[in-house]
UniProtKB/TrEMBL annotation:
<feature type="domain" description="RNase H type-1">
    <location>
        <begin position="79"/>
        <end position="213"/>
    </location>
</feature>
<keyword id="KW-0460">Magnesium</keyword>
<dbReference type="InterPro" id="IPR017290">
    <property type="entry name" value="RNase_H_bac"/>
</dbReference>
<dbReference type="InterPro" id="IPR012337">
    <property type="entry name" value="RNaseH-like_sf"/>
</dbReference>
<keyword id="KW-0255">Endonuclease</keyword>
<keyword id="KW-0963">Cytoplasm</keyword>
<dbReference type="InterPro" id="IPR002156">
    <property type="entry name" value="RNaseH_domain"/>
</dbReference>
<dbReference type="InterPro" id="IPR009027">
    <property type="entry name" value="Ribosomal_bL9/RNase_H1_N"/>
</dbReference>
<dbReference type="Pfam" id="PF00075">
    <property type="entry name" value="RNase_H"/>
</dbReference>
<keyword id="KW-0540">Nuclease</keyword>
<dbReference type="InterPro" id="IPR037056">
    <property type="entry name" value="RNase_H1_N_sf"/>
</dbReference>
<keyword id="KW-0479">Metal-binding</keyword>
<dbReference type="Pfam" id="PF01693">
    <property type="entry name" value="Cauli_VI"/>
</dbReference>
<comment type="similarity">
    <text>Belongs to the RNase H family.</text>
</comment>
<keyword id="KW-0378">Hydrolase</keyword>
<comment type="function">
    <text>Endonuclease that specifically degrades the RNA of RNA-DNA hybrids.</text>
</comment>
<dbReference type="InterPro" id="IPR036397">
    <property type="entry name" value="RNaseH_sf"/>
</dbReference>
């Protein structure tokens, strides 16, 4: 018996646009394409409908999620604090096209977005998203907390460093300029924002997720 297909990929911007039936086919359309726009859907009908619409109306839309944790574990974790913002990053490759954004945790309203940048990594994007979020909340004198699903980025922010193994070159110069600015901001600014790990196993994907795969 053949395995039922569970995902279809809509490509709004790429080498070729349309609906593709495998991640490999989708990846071929977005690889080395600046500003590629794509997302996965559970049915062909949904993917085809999305193709006729606007990419920005679909990124980050949550999918049906049911936690596999026990009731006891879920009770211990509790619910998200909605007096918060959430940040996340996406990278098509390692390194690859990288972008990051921040949203209101409850409404998912986008508060900021940066990218895509050439030759970034997901960890770098998560780090930059956190620092951008800290600066954003400080500028708006907000007492909200901030969620991330990256322990690595949380550690880098705590240590005021970006411990990436990516080497600088001319192509990723804009990425490293952002990294340098982020580190300088951490070194010269104080903040009261609490950074909290998003409990993906209990709550599903973080609200700022780009929702592409």
């Amino acid at each position: 018996m053949s395995k039922k297909k569970t995902k279809y990929y809509t490509v709004w911007k790429g080498h070729h646009t349309g609906v593709f039936e495998s991640w490999d086919d989708c990846k071929a359309q977005i690889k080395n394409f600046e500003g590629a726009q794509y997302k996965s859907f559970a049915t062909f009908e949904a993917a085809k409908k999305a193709l006729k619409g606007n990419y920005k109306d679909y990124i980050g839309k949550s999918k049906t999620f049911k936690s596999e944790l026990s009731d006891e574990q879920l009770k211990k974790i509790g619910q998200p604090n909605y007096n918060s913002i959430s940040v996340d990053a996406a990278s098509s490759g390692n390194p690859g096209k990288m972008e990051y954004r921040g949203v209101d945790t409850k409404t998912k309203k986008q508060l900021f977005i940066q990218g895509p940048f050439d030759e970034g990594t997901n960890n770098i994007g998560e780090f930059l998203a956190l620092v951008h979020g800290l600066a954003f909340l400080k500028q708006h004198k907000s007492d909200r907390i901030m969620y991330t699903d990256s322990r690595t980025a949380m550690s880098w922010v705590r240590k005021k460093t970006c411990n990436t193994k990516l080497e600088r070159n001319e192509k990723n110069k804009p990425v490293f300029e952002l990294i340098d600015r982020a580190i300088k901001w951490l070194e010269t600014n104080s903040y009261k924002t609490t950074i909290v790990k998003w409990e993906t196993k209990a709550w599903g994907e973080i609200p700022a997720d780009f929702g592409r795969k």
